[in-house]
User: What shape does this take?
Amino acid sequence: ETGVTQTPRHLVMGMTNKKSLKCEQHLGHNAMYWYKQSAKKPLELMFVYSLEERVENNSVPSRFSPECPNSSHLFLHLHTLQPEDSALYLCASSQERPGELFFGEGSRLTVL
Amino acid sequence: AQSVAQPEDQVNVAEGNPLTVKCTYSVSGNPYLFWYVQYPNRGLQFLLKYITGDNLVKGSYGFEAEFNKSQTSFHLKKPSALVSDSALYFCAVRDFPVENAGNMLTFGGGTRLMVKP
Assistant: This one.
């Protein structure tokens, strides 16, 4: 059982829809992350929040909008996505030290 | 900038034989190194890490990894492979962390391990 919970596990949306991915961590960590995993590509870091402040926005298109209302919750708001945005979106959390990330099971997104 | 290379897309090994999954890295300072495993339709699970100290690191499920600074490598090993070890393995690295900046890991492309009975 993972200490990082992601919902929904699967999401199918049209290009004009607005949806959100949710992540909740029960580990008392102070940093949270969104990664994108596409077929045949390395994991791509999208956003990092540390102490509820965004510290990294890795050139992600504005159609992806993160929100971190507190240290336990992280959202990824999606709107007007493209089919190439179809991927597995992974949430992770960590302490500042020693540094390993703990991942959720991922949200599989399909954009039609 | 930090980077990680996993030169093998796939490694095949027979059950009971030793396995090695290769990883090389590039960082500007002292590296923090990690191995993760991913089973189908699952997230990444942490296996082990090297921060400092003994170059041979032991982790979950009987896996270990050897840090070699001169070769900038951190290969994952297991003395006797199991069919259940078949999965996707990722090596990751980060430079010495910056305060309050999270832990931005850079991942390799992954190596698929196939263990055959």
Notes: Chain B touches chain A at residues 32, 34, 36, 41-46, 49, 51, 90, 94, 97, 99-110 (CB under 8 Å). The CA atoms of residues 25 and 41 of chain B lie 27 Å apart.
